[in-house]
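ERR on first pass: missing label on line 2. Operator R.T. fixed the label and resubmitted. Corrected input:
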Amino acid sequence: MGVSYQAVGWNRQKKIYDWLIFAFCALYLSTFVGLTVVFNADYTFETVLIRSTSTLAVLLLHIILSIGPLSRINRKFLPLLYNRRHLGVTMFFVAAIHGTFGILQFHSLGNVNPFVSLFTSNTNYGSLTDFPFQALGFFALLIFFLMAITSHDFWLHNLSPRVWKTLHMFVYVAYFLVVMHVMLGVIQYETNPVFVLIMVIGSFTLICLHMIAGFKEVKKDKVISMMTENGFSKVCVVDDIEENRAKIFCLDKERIAVFKVDGKLFAISNVCKHQNGPLGEGKVIDGCITCPWHGYQYLPRNGQSPPPFKEKVCTYDVKVIDDQVWLNPNPYPEGTERAGAPIIAP
Amino acid sequence: MIRPLRRIHLRTWSLFAVLLPVGIISAWLSVPSLPAYKLFQPVQAEPLPVVVRTIKTEDHIINLRSDASHHSYQLEWINITALSAPSALIYRTKNNGDVENAEIIGRIDPRGLYRFSLKNDTTGNSHFVVYDIIHHRVIEKINF
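pass 2 clean. output:
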């Protein structure tokens, strides 16, 4: 969270995260090159580079796409989510090296523009065996490029979260293109079944993780309170909520987080203004509700970010009767001050 | 994540649960089955049962074969290492090894096994020359 935009708002965690990414990539590439030199010494430098970066990019893409569902299934994975964008940009650079050398090696030595050659050297779009798979990789890389250049919060703010998120949802289209790029490309002439196995395991893992996380969220949304009185619904007992933590309820259209802070209950929207992170899964730090995704903060009593920040979320009425927590799902305008519900010890 | 986004995620991955396996399996099934490697040479005749004489070097084995009654003869050439020439002709010659007026027995490639039928009069001393027809040089002279 910052008042002004910086290229990267470095902090210790980001530095450690990025060093780990760099070390992993360097280790992977050097191992790949080393093994190739030992077992396939006749391969050219360009071929080794194309192959090593392609496999690394595919691996990184699978890791990136598994972080979201993993952190929804288990909170221990949340630290990985914090700088997922850095991993995404790294993956784009690795994929760009693969794409650049692929075009140089296969399309730059003729008398046709390499990009024209990419789309015209093979036009067997009706054949699975001879499908021009490089075109699929090109469009996937284009999507990754758009995502990488708009990954900064500057673009998130200026494009609006809705447009930004819609653009970044195209990562799934890109993933499908990458899978087919591999399956219709290298798999068609590499007889080694390991390549197919890797793609099958990768896709299967991602499908399972996303489906498990998705159905878990659906289950949360289906919890309906049966007891309603004067617009308030009974949701839980006071002891169900930990101090400085929240419990999330979905009574109407959107989820509401009820926090317990300093002997009072406060209810605010569960959706962070930054990237729609789940505020109710965060905790109260320095008196502020802190989003678990990127650390955006809000005051419990009014849903406003502390000055000089300007983010605001909706607030709700909550009350405690005989140790029971009652919640009104009708939202107040964003940033509206609420007194909170005092918890009276029995 | 807001509720519509949660729905989109779930629907997308439900769709992928179908699309990805279909795509992967279709691509896997379309992998062309390459023909097994075959040496580019005609099917060789069956070997005659009797090995009359053998010459064995580091690079090849040459057998002069015949049937039991010694009416039919056969020259068998087995390459152990690849021939240095891309193609060569085997001639049966007089003693002087001149290929100009010699009888062509057959052609051999760098690898493989070859059997050539010989005319019935191949008895006693037989002289053969392996000749590189591209570079016009004698590769080897064989005297049984």
